[in-house]
Amino acid sequence: MVNSKQLIAADEKKAQELQEKNNKLADLEKQFNKAMVSIYNRTKAECKYNATYLLKMISEEGGLKTAKHLINAKYVSEGFEKLFTLKRLDLTVEALVLTKPWHELFNSKELEIAIKRLNSLGYKIKLNELLSGIVNTRKTD
After folding, report:
1. 3-state SS of the chain: helix, strand, coil percent to 5?
2. Taking the CB of residue 11, how many other CB atoms lie within 10 A of it?
3. 17 half-sphere exposure, CB direction, 13 A CA radius
4. Which domain holds residue 56?
5. pLDDT tens digits, 92-122
6. What is the value of pTM for the model shown?
7. What is the number of H-type helices and E-type strands within the chain?
8. Dist CA 135 CA 137 (whole Å)
9. Which of 24, 46, 113, 120 is the least buried, fewest Cβ under 10 Å from its Cβ?
């Protein structure tokens, strides 16, 4: 028979595991924000394209909310279109979210949208950047 001390210990362990997972995701989100600023900087340096709207969104909402907003939009952004014309889809938010470890921050619908947008334009997703089967195995939020 399970006593109350065992139940309390089990609850405390679950709470600790949940806290550790939340801390990991918070750290990952901070790192993702830096990665979003990095693609802005790379786009400016490598393509001579100043995506000021992207930087403004990141500054105001943070990288994760910005990425989710752009991915969940009905149409691709102006920046996505510009990067397509510059043959630099590798610098899109869609390409970034599919790379390790950032994909953990997005649900399966968002990942599927990113994959479809890139694939529709002939962008080849590198296998080492995408976890195989991620779209089929992740739960939607």
Report:
1. 70, 0, 30
2. 10
3. 6
4. 4-137
5. 999 999 988 898 899 999 999 999 999 999 8
6. 0.76
7. 7, 0
8. 6
9. 120
